[in-house]
Every structure is written in C-alpha cells, then in structure tokens.
Design a protein that fits this description.
heterodimer; A: 209 residues; alpha/beta; TIM Barrel; eight-stranded mixed β-sheet; globular; B: 159 residues; alpha+beta; Alpha-Beta Plaits; 2 domains
C-alpha cells in the first residue's frame, strides 16, 4: 500500500479532503501530523508525530509523549545528535536530511539506522517548492544519502510534506522527482510502501503466554 | 516551406496532465510559460532545449504537454514543480504518456461540473462550490482582497 509519509492538516485542506485527494492520486494511506486516525474514502489516515528537539534527552521525552499508534519522525540535526537519535527507541524514521549540514548524517549514523530498522524520510517539498541553491542543496543531500542507503540498506520513506491538497504529488510524479537524485522507480515504490513495514517491523516470534 | 518527411521528423511524446482544481480556467500561453519556467529552473537552458517542451492542448481540467521522446521523466519532474499558473494556485498531476495526442484524448475523463452552493459569493460570505459528491471548495477574500481557497468536504449530516 502506497503511503504519503508526511502531510499536515494545519493548512487550507481538511483531513478528510486530504485523504480523498491522496486516494485519487493512488495512495492507500497518508500520515497526517497531529491528526487523529481514521479512514476516509478507503484511504487510511495514520496519525503522525513530528519531533524536533534541541538535544537527545528532550527528544526522548517528546517521543515518550507521542500518541500510541503514531508514525514518529525525529528531525535530524548536528552529527552528535543524529548518532544519539538513531538509537532512540520509539522512533520510526529520521527526517529533515535536506536541512542537515554536510556530513552531519554520517556512515556511523547510517549503520545504526540500518541495524535498528529505522527509516529515513525524504520530503518532496524542497524539490517542488524551492528554487536555486536551496533545491540544489536538497538534491545534493538526497544524492549523498543514497550512497549510504546503497551501502547500509536502511529503508527510505517518501513524504510530500503537503499542507494543501494541491501540494500532494502522484506516485509517478514522485518517481520522476526522485529520479533527479538517482532513486530508481523500484526504490521509489519501496519507499512509498515503507511506512507500513516501519510501523510493524519483522521481529522474532515471542511466546507471550 | 516543405514539411520534412516523417522519417526525418523529431520523435515526440505527449503527456496528459490533470489540472487540480479542475475548474481553473487555463489558457495555453500562461501554462506554457509556467511549464517553461519550471523546466528551465530545474534543468537549465540546455536541458530545456533538449526537452523541447510545449503545451499542445488545454481542455477543462486537463492539458497535454509535448516533449522530445526519451525526455518524458524530466518533463514529469518539471511538471511536478509547477505550483501556480497566472496567479492561480494549482497542481499538474500526470495521467498518461503516449506517442499520439489522439490516444491521450481518448483517456480524458471530463471533470465534474462545480455546483455553487446556496449563499455566499459576496465580500463577506465565502463562496462554496461543490465538486462531485462530497468535495467542497471554499473561496473567500483575505484582507488584501485576494481569493483564498480552502478544500473541505460536505459535513456527514448533509450527505
């Protein structure tokens, strides 16, 4: 099931309308930050929690307060923070790679992310909305992430970052945009299906009773 | 001027895009300029020359954009970065790519007619337009007098 990993409902579009428009584009689910769970027009709404914190301790406290069943993403920052963030329990994906300094997301963080089964969220928003150096920077960061992704094979998830239903992009358009930094169509499909597997990771069978 | 024989002509591909919101009245030239700006911003002048994009048809809710064969993905990427045309906020969603305009026109599904809901439309009350079964678009004027769109749905009790 294709999932848009990040939408917001604090813009000009209601939650139900956002879900309906995403469904019309071919998505089966959306992650809506700070919104309740639900199903609208056959499109599942997964509540999202987007956490931005100045230090790992504060991040840990905020992750604990995230609603149950939410898709929790933590904003990347400096290198030391990122290494700690990759080891935090309760986080599903790390986001904001395009805003990081160069080398702030390094190979050690990438290896930890892969070992812990976290995802890295790629937002289409900077590619769509930005122009000039800001978009070039985002493309460079994403291309650099792909080098680490190929080496350590951590999962990727794709989100539009839409605050309006006009900001949503169809999977085919998302694939074309991702092609700009070298992500091929199969990888884009895997990234669009990544939220479900991150929220229900494969783990060894445990005997509970 | 004598037309070139078919074997010497450039091979082209045509992209059918759905315009959202579907009731925005588009003209060819503003759309062409918006697409050309998006292509040039993303790929530069050299890339734009290679893509050789042009808007060949504009219909209600849809448009057909042309490019050189093999450059479809680049054109799709550029179309995804178009966020406004002639001051109207919109999105261009790709629906199909083909080698002929006719096959694309066969795939066009006419968008539902917007139905103005009762009340509103003046400076103080927002205008509400129903699109299809439950989608409602609300247009109101902000303090600058510009139109602001909100995208909602019909309240469950009113369905």
């Amino acid at each position: 099931m294709r999932t848009d990993a990040r939408t917001y409902t604090d813009g000009d579009t209601s939650l139900e309308r956002m879900a309906l428009e995403a469904g019309a584009l071919g998505y089966g689910a959306i992650v809506a930050v700070d919104a309740p769970a639900g199903v609208f027009g056959g499109v599942r709404v997964i509540p999202g929690a987007s956490i931005s914190a100045p230090n790992p301790n504060r991040a840990m406290a905020m992750v604990r307060k995230a609603p149950t069943g939410a898709f929790v993403t933590l904003q990347l920052g400096e290198a030391a923070f990122n290494r700690a963030a990759a080891a935090l329990p309760g986080v599903h994906a790390l986001s904001g790679a395009h805003l990081c300094r160069r080398h702030a997301f390094d190979h050690i963080t990438a290896r930890t992310v892969a070992e812990r089964g976290l995802g890295i969220e790629l937002l289409l928003d900077p590619l769509v909305r930005e122009r000039g150096s800001a978009r070039q920077s985002a493309l460079r960061r994403y291309a650099d992430l792909l080098v680490l992704h190929e080496r350590y094979e951590f999962p990727l998830v794709l989100g539009s970052g839409a605050r309006s239903c006009l900001d949503l992009r169809a999977p085919r358009a998302a694939a074309a945009l991702c092609g700009l930094f070298g992500l091929d169509r199969d990888e884009v499909e895997a990234a669009l299906s990544g939220v479900e597997s991150l929220m229900a990771p494969n783990s060894p069978v445990r005997e509970v009773a | 001027m004598k037309p070139r024989p078919p074997t010497l002509r450039q091979n082209r591909r045509y992209v059918l895009v759905r315009v959202a919101p579907s009731y925005v009245v588009l003209e060819g030239k503003p759309l062409y300029l918006a697409v050309a700006e998006a292509v040039a911003a993303l790929f530069g002048d050299t890339g734009a020359a290679r893509i050789d994009q042009a808007v060949v048809a504009v219909m209600p809710g849809h448009a057909i954009v042309r490019c050189r064969r093999g450059e479809e993905e680049r054109l799709l990427a550029a179309l995804a970065t178009v966020t406004a045309v002639d001051g109207h906020r919109l999105a261009l969603h790709p629906r199909a790519v083909s080698g002929t305009i006719r096959s694309l026109k066969d795939r066009i599904v006419p968008p539902p007619e917007p139905i103005a809901l009762a009340g509103g439309g003046d400076d103080e009350t927002p205008q509400r337009v129903r699109i299809g079964a439950i989608r409602v678009d609300v247009t109101e004027h902000d303090y600058k007098g510009e139109n602001v769109l909100h995208f909602e749905t019909i309240h469950p009790e009113d369905r």
